[in-house]
Amino acid sequence: MNMKNTLLATALGAGLAMIAAPASAADTQRYLVNLAPGSDAAAVTAVLQSHGVDVVRSFEDANGATLAVNVDMANLPDLVALRAQLPQVTGYGIDVARRTMAIPTPIEDVVVDGETVPWGIQAVDSLGVPYGGGRKVCIIDTGYDLGHPDLQTTRVDGEDEGAGPWDNSDGGGLHYHGTHVAGTIAALGDNGQGVIGVVPGGDLDLHIVRLFDSGGGFVYASDLAGAMEDCAAAGSNVISMSLGGDYSSRLEERVAERLNKKGVLLVAASGNGGSIGGLEPKGDYATFSYPASYDAVMSVAAYDNNLEKAYFSQYTSQVEIAGPGVDVLSTVLNGAYGTASGTSMATPHVSGVAALVWSNHKECSNHQIRNALRESAYDLEAPGYDYYSGWGLVQAQAAMDYLAVNPCKGKKTGAGNH
Ligand SMILES: [Ca+2]
Ligand SMILES: [Ca+2]
Fold this sequence. Notes:
Blueprint: H1 3-12, E1 28-35, H2 41-50, E2 54-61, E3 64-72, H3 79-84, E4 89-94, E5 97-100, E6 108-109, H4 119-123, E7 136-141, E8 156-160, H5 177-186, E9 205-210, E10 219-220, H6 221-233, E11 238-241, E12 243-244, H7 250-262, E13 265-269, E14 297-303, E15 319-324, E16 328-331, E17 337-340, H8 343-359, H9 366-376, H10 396-405
Parallel strand pairs: 7-9, 7-11, 8-9, 11-13, 13-14, 14-15
Antiparallel strand pairs: 1-3, 1-4, 2-3, 5-10, 5-12, 6-17, 16-17
């Protein structure tokens, strides 16, 4: 935090969490402005804008509104005057960073002869489960290589969240990450080429939110919270987030809780930091990553093709389920294929299986699908729940079998992770 940031933080109010996100472009810093319930967010926005503050987004729920604002540190507003004009403001905070969750090794192009079923697709046992239609998966990532011969070009739309066009129409600079995630969920099957995804018929609805630019940089938690809202507004049933960061965000958690209550299933990477220290009691010394570690979100661990935990996969009391996340073959840029590792790669296996199973049981709530995935997971590590794999490796056919015996109708289950 530079001197100007410190000055602003001090001026804006006491009790400010001193967790700084890395400085973004130039001298702009993101802050969160919390308003009392019932406040007129538009009026506060007008005052802030009149002082040269860029109001990026307004979040509103029963607890009041939060404004995400960019402040140009080279042109600080008159903070004393600003504060006097904003009695509705109950507090301020600094926003925190979110990044994609692949292991940062160079992606290696793999020449695929004919069509290959990646090991992870076999491991989650999805090939025998037909897609029942009517589900939409939102992928918050680096975009989607629209026109890749092994990815659908229909039933996919998206939006630019300031990082560039969602469809890679800005050329080859787009990071491979989002396209790799999309291929695991929905690469086309039976087309004689490339790979095959969890839902391979080209008939899954996809909504792509390009949140990250081509440079592998970070976004703010408020950007991610906004992206989640946009996924829900587009009618998404599942939100797949191969991303995260070390610090929790109350704003982000509130948005996740609200969407979870509205019926959206949220899935995120457990993180690639391994874990430090002991795990007793209840993971107090473990490294949590967010948004995966909110109760409203399924946290996904990464396992390899021997069903051993990836060395990087974070293990905590919030890990809920595991997916294939080492040497995962999928689609990459420019019509190519490549292998990548990370809890980023494990996450879309779970998102895809959730959509696949749910499409056959649309009478189920998001909580009930989540519960079915947990109950039917292939148990790994110590018997029952464990901090490494959660309830175990996600299993599509077993989840179908579970729901055949345990129908959703009239049954209520909780939304916690275990
Ligand atoms: Ca294919
Ligand atoms: Ca276990």
